[in-house]
Each structure stands twice: as C-alpha cells, then as structure tokens.
C-alpha cells in the first residue's frame, strides 16, 4: 500500500452493495488511501477487503471493532454507508467523531438532519466541534439532483418565486428490497395498506431536500406535505423478478410540497417505477425555476442513482477533510466534483 | 436608509448598464445595504444614485473618489463592473483590497486570473491575504454555465473522460458594441480581417472556464486551442439595428478545446448570433459529460446572460464576505444562489 503522506486516509464503514462501491472507488483514487474497513459480519473479521469487493489483495483488512480501528489508524475521514436513518446511525457517528475523525455519510436523513431530527443535529454539530472535525451527509438524492443542483441553478437568479422538479427513474434493475418498499407488483389496495403500515415508504429524503433548498435561498418554507400514490400500470411491464400486469402497481409516485404560509414554493416529484418507457415516459431529471430569469433544465436519462451516490460519497472526502469543524450540509461546502487528478484534491 | 448592522455593506463600482443592474438588485435585497457608488463621470459626483438607476431617492451618492469613499464608509464588499480585463482592473482592485474591503468582480478574466495573468493572480492573492479580505470573479459565463455548472454536474461522477458543452444564444436584443465585436453584419472576408486585427473578439472567458474545470476535476489540461469562425447566414435575419442578408455573417462561432497532451478533454462551443431560430436552431445550454455515469444536460432557452451576470455578482456577496482571505474562484466557495430571505445570508 502506498504510504504517501499527502493522501487522505479513509476508512469505509459498511460493506453492503453501496459500501463495496465506495471502497472500490476509494482504491482507484490517487489522492485517497483506504486504511481500513468496518462491517458487522463476524465472519469477515481480519479478512482482506478483496474477499468482499473482489480484485487483488489490498492489504486493507476488515474489522468488526471500529473503535479499535480508529484508535490505531490515524484515519482522516470515515465514509459510512450503513442506514438511511439518523437515529440508527447516531451511535456510530458518535464513535467516529469522538475519535477525532471527519465523516461523510450517505444516510439520506443526514443530508439535512435538522429537518427531522433537530436535537440530534445540534448534538452532532456540538460533538464535531468539540473534537475539531466535520461531518456531512450526501448522496444522489437527497444531496445532489433534487436540491444542490437546484440551488446551483439559481446562482445568477435575481428572484425565485417557485421551484418545481421531477426525477423520473426506472426501477427495472433493482432487486427485492427496493421493489417491495416502492410497492412494485402490488394491487392498488395492497399498496394503500402498505403505505398505511409503513412497509411501502417511497423516496427517503424529501424533507431534507426541501430544507436544503429553502435554507439556501431563504424561501421560508414552514410546512411540508407529502403524498404517496400507486402508479397503476395500463400495460404489461417486466421487472427483474416479476411481471406487472395491467391494473397492478408499477411503482410509487411520491410528491413533496413545501409551503411558506399558504403559498406553494417548492414541489418535488419522484415517481419511481419499473419500465416507465412502456407507457412512453422518458427517464430524466427536470427542474423548472420560476423567477427572474425563468430556467428550464433537463437531463436524459436521469443522473444514474447508485453510481452517483457512491461517487458523491468519495468526491466529498476532500471537501469534508478541508472544512471547518461542525455539522455541514452540501450547500455549506464548495461543490463536490469528480476526482480525476492531483489538483482535484487541492482547494485554497 | 436602514442602518441594521446585520446587513452586509456594499459599494457598487461602475454605473454602466451592468453596474446599474447590480445596484438596483442590491437595493432590493434585505440582507444587503448599498452604502456608496463609484463612477468615473465627473458630472455624477455627489448625485443620488437614483439619477442614474431611476426610482426614488436612495440617500446613496455617487463619487469619483473611491479611495475617500472606502476610507469613510466601512464597506464590507465592493462589486466592480468596469471591464473584462484583469490588467485594466488591477489598479482599482488594489485600491479596494488595500482599504481592507472584499471584492466581487464581473471581469471575465477574474473568474480564474491565473489562466492568463498568473503573476497578477499571485499579486492579488498576496494583497488580499495581507489585508485579511477575499476576492472573486463571477458572471454567467465564465463563472457559471460553461464551468461551475459543469463541475457541479460531476458531483457524483466516478470517472470523467471528456466534457463537451455548448451555449447557443440569440444576440437580437443586443446593441452596437456587442454586434460589432461578434462581427454581426459583416461579410465573411470582413469577419476574417476583424478577427486578425482584434476588433472581432468572440467570447471573452474560455481560457478561464477551461482552467476552472480542469483545476476542479484535476483533468490536467496543458494546452488550449481556440477558433473563431463566422456564422454565415443562409437566410435573411433581423437584428435590432440591421438586416443580415443571406451570405452575410449572423454571428461568431467561438470554440475552445482543452488538451491533456494530445487528448482532447474539454470542448466548449459558444456560437453567438442574431436570430438562430431563423435556421431552426434552438437557444439553450447543452452539457455532455462522458464518463461514469454519462450525463446529458440541457436548458432551453439558455440561462439568460445579462440578468444572470448581475444576479451572480449580487448572489456572491455573502459568499465572499464569509470566505477566508485570499483570491478565490467560484469553485472554491459554497455555490452562490438566489438571495430571497434571511437564511440565504447565513452559512455555518
């Protein structure tokens, strides 16, 4: 392993699908050095990370004892990919911050933890400052497409009255867990029941995205409404492991509306379904900013989800390493970007 | 005038068309206080700025003596809108920095002054640090559409191999100076002669945009090629003050290519012409990022130029006010964004 002291020393915590992607990417980046990996599976203890992520032996071993690892490695940053929920992740975040190590989390709620967990956000901010380190939550969404990208698009805006944005993606490549939590393949009645009992959750991250936009621009959103409705297919659609017949649910249409008083100022739409092209819907990201000037932006197809969340986690490492202490949000930092060569790791 | 001490105190330097737009916008923003204005026209000395920008009397007077103004106003930031060229602006920048005041410049070359004026960039950086203030150059382009927006779009990119972007706009609303410097209404022969003698310049800012992208991502661009060609009209087109007959020049096609060794890594196209729709060309901004993932972004129409440059200047005021000392580029700061309410002026 290269011991170049200029490289940022990173520990990857969590070796699920996303954590494996992050670890592989860290190993590829010349300005980063992977110095350890954490997982909860006891059978991985002491093994080289290549036994999980493939490839040649790396010299990086997996441990189930993160506190001991952090005490011994002199790590600069931990990338943590364990859960979507701040409350679930809090004990691990405390372990990392207390060891004096910076954190990049892909927990959706960490993109703006003050949105739903203001006391925990204050606790994290205080702990980070106490230990002189910084922490941020990022991902493709929340953390990029339906919030930071919108904020950046208003860079030259003299006035913003209202924002509407949609992210239309295709769940066809996804497996059982994602399809189940989006209600794919249910009847409309089963879908409603699933939403009621919490087994169908839709997108995780709308309160955070709305908070990021509202805080950045000062839009004063004081109320959030969310709706989750079934996308009932008119045609037969093929998912990876099931067929959606007409009349069945192809996915979940999740909408969030942020109001200032009675005025709608932010509307975010995220219909997630299998095979939208079967009903002539193109995948893509669509952002409209009503104001001066009016801006219409689109991407097609949508900016790829899984790839970009792993990319965000890694690309944010230099930003959080250089940040002032405390809890940050992506809007508080110079934008993350692809890390392709030496100058990508240097900021004034 | 509101004397609320929480507001950022701004001086507007330059009262041409762009400076007037910036001054008006500063007056509209609740977190900013316009505390003075500078122009070189002696007949404006001591007059209320409303005599130039219109509207009600503001209590803000115009001076031709910026050093005296800066010594007396306790200004936090100067927005300066006097020229495109770093060398021309340098004496004024020294006056401001030496007075211990932060600067937002819309001089195109200031978006990345190290691109064409590395010694001046070092001098500015040192002077800013000596006086504990910061300075940045921004605008719609360079500073936003063909550089910072591209950088932000790679937030989640695992790899970027090559970037190609185009900004297609319509010069129809513009007056004599812009049309002349883009060669509108010339013959192809006159156009070539105008490029040769420097009277037709095309877009100002490509070396800066390429530098911003290459530095941010670490693409290692070590050579820049620019071409300027006439857009010869096939049809009759109407400009504000002239008619372009078929065979005449409707505008200027300016292309910049950044190479790393012999490999093209960045290509920026900016065809500026009157009435592109006359030949079925839609105005808009188009960005393609070849890499993992591949990203195709477009806006339609293009993000409005003049409005957004004035907006960028004002929206960057809170960022440069809060920055650490020295010369900054837009990629070094949290992104500017529309300033619509109190939280827009607060960063952690």
Task: Describe this protein's structure.
The structure is a homodimer of 348-residue chains. Chain A has 348 residues and is an alpha/beta fold. The first copy, chain A, folds into 2 domains: 171 residues, Rossmann fold; 156 residues, 2-Layer Sandwich (Dihydrodipicolinate Reductase, domain 2). Chain A has 11 helices and 15 strands. Chain A has a 7-stranded parallel sheet, sandwiched between helices. In chain A, strands 8-11-12-7-13-14 form a 6-stranded mixed sheet. In chain A, strand 11 and strand 12 form a beta hairpin. In chain A, helix 1 packs across helix 10. The model of chain A has no long low-confidence stretch (mean pLDDT 96). Chains A and B meet through helix 6, helix 9, strand 14, helix 10 and strand 15 of A and helix 6, helix 9, strand 14, helix 10 and strand 15 of B.
Low-confidence stretches of chain A: none
Task: Specify the CATH architecture of the largest domain in chain A.
Answer: 3-Layer(aba) Sandwich
What is the string of helix and strand elements of chain A?
Answer: EHEHEHEHEHEHEHHHEEEEEEEHHE
The percent range for strand residues of chain A is 25-35%
Q: How many independent structural domains of chain A?
A: 2
Largest sheet of chain A: 7 strands, parallel
- What distance separates the N and C termini of chain A? 28 Å
* Proportion in helices of chain A: 25-40%
> How many individual β-strands of chain A?
15
Fourth-tier CATH superfamily name of the largest domain in chain A: NAD(P)-binding Rossmann-like Domain
Instruction: Please tell me what the overall shape of chain A is.
Output: globular
Mean pLDDT of chain A: 96
Radius of gyration of chain A: 21 Å
């Amino acid at each position: 392993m290269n011991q170049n002291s200029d490289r940022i020393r990173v520990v990857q915590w969590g070796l699920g699908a996303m954590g494996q992607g992050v670890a592989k990417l860290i190993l590829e980046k010349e300005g980063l050095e992977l110095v350890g990996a954490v997982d909860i599976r006891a059978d991985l203890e002491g093994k080289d990370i290549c036994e999980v992520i493939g490839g040649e032996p790396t010299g990086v071993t997996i441990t189930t004892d993160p506190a001991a690892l952090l005490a011994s490695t002199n790590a600069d940053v931990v990338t943590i990919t364990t859960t979507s929920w701040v409350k679930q992740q809090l004990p691990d975040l405390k372990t990392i911050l207390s060891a004096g190590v910076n954190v990049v989390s892909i927990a959706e709620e960490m993109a703006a933890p003050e949105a739903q967990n203001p006391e925990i956000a204050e606790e994290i901010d205080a702990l980070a400052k106490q230990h002189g380190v910084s922490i941020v939550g990022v991902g493709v969404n929340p953390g990029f497409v339906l919030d930071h990208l919108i904020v950046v698009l208003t860079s030259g805006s003299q006035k913003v009255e209202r924002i509407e944005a949609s992210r239309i993606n295709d769940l066809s490549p996804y497996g059982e867990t994602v399809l189940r939590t989006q209600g794919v393949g249910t009847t409309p009645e089963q879908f409603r029941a699933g939403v009621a009992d919490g087994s169908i959750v839709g997108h995780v991250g709308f309160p955070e995205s709305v908070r990021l936009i509202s805080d950045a621009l000062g839009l004063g959103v004081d109320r959030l409404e969310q709706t989750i409705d079934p996308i009932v297919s008119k045609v037969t659609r093929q998912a990876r492991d099931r067929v959606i017949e007409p009349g069945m649910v192809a996915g979940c249409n999740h909408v969030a509306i942020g109001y200032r008083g009675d005025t709608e100022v932010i509307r975010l739409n995220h219909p997630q379904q299998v095979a939208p092209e079967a009903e002539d819907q193109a995948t893509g990201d669509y952002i409209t900013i009503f104001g001066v000037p009016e801006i219409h932006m689109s991407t097609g197809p949508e900016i790829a989800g899984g790839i970009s969340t792993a990319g965000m986690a890694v690309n944010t490492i230099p930003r959080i390493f250089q940040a002032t202490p405390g809890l940050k949000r992506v809007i508080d930092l110079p934008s993350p970007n692809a890390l392709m060569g030496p100058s990508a790791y240097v900021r004034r």
